[in-house]
Amino acid sequence: MTTELKPYEVYAIRYAENPRLAGQNFIGGDPHNGPMPHDYFVWVIVGNGRTWLVDTGFDADMAVRRERPRLRCPSEGLALLGISVADIKDVIITHMHYDHAGNEELFAGATFHLQDAEMSFATSRHMCHSIMSHAYECEDVVAMVRRLYRGKLQFHECTEELAPGLSVHHIGGHTQGLQAVRVWTRRGWVVLASDAAHFYANMVESRPFPIVHNVANMMEGFRTLRRLASSPEHIIPGHDPLVMKKYPAPRADLEGIVVRLDVEPRPSFA
Questions:
Q1: Residue 142's domain spans which residues?
Q2: Is 268 among the domain residues?
Q3: Has residue 7 been placed in a domain?
Q4: CB-based contacts of 46: which residues, under 8 Å, 6+ apart?
Q5: pTM exceeds 0.85 for this model
Q6: Of 34, 95, 171, 249, which is least packed with CB atoms within 10 Å of its CB?
């Protein structure tokens, strides 16, 4: 029973940003097409004697290549929470796009957790098509293969519990092997959707993000996220700047850098 589970603390660390227009964030565009920027996050789950990192972001070179303003290395965000890279023994990779699976070398001692379907997809004939491969980076994929042969990669199929109150769930849609993370917290089940829903609006308005492997699976994924979470308010999208406004920082000096997701939203968003 959930009452027997010990709750985790969950944090979102904002490490980069990307000014965009709304039309870039929905299949079919947007009739208003005003500013609708991306934020880039990694997430940290702390509790039950372990610290889990969800995704690893991208490095400074990738920021230049992709023209994505990087605000800080994700490791710097971890340090602000008193967490060193050596403290991270487990890394959950939601999918292997460049903004979620870079910086692999910073966590050399950690075990990475990935869906079988995502590795299959990233190394399949689908990558012969630039529309599918452009969000992946070859070196990130190769690094994951090397990690596999070092015994530092653990595969998961569909839904698996990684620890009491912490599980991964295959969603697909955005990529073939995208997984969301479900965490038991003091306020109930929080679901880190990652790119199963880039923005609240993608899910609430049933308007999918245009980088997509399977539109039908993405739409069904919205339903799965709702089923997994204690309420729609417990779903955390992967790139929405509203996350930073909706949830409080753990300390005043971390405002705009880190927010805490296992507590209730700010009163104005309750």
A1: 2-263
A2: no
A3: yes
A4: 8, 9, 10, 11, 52, 83
A5: yes
A6: 34
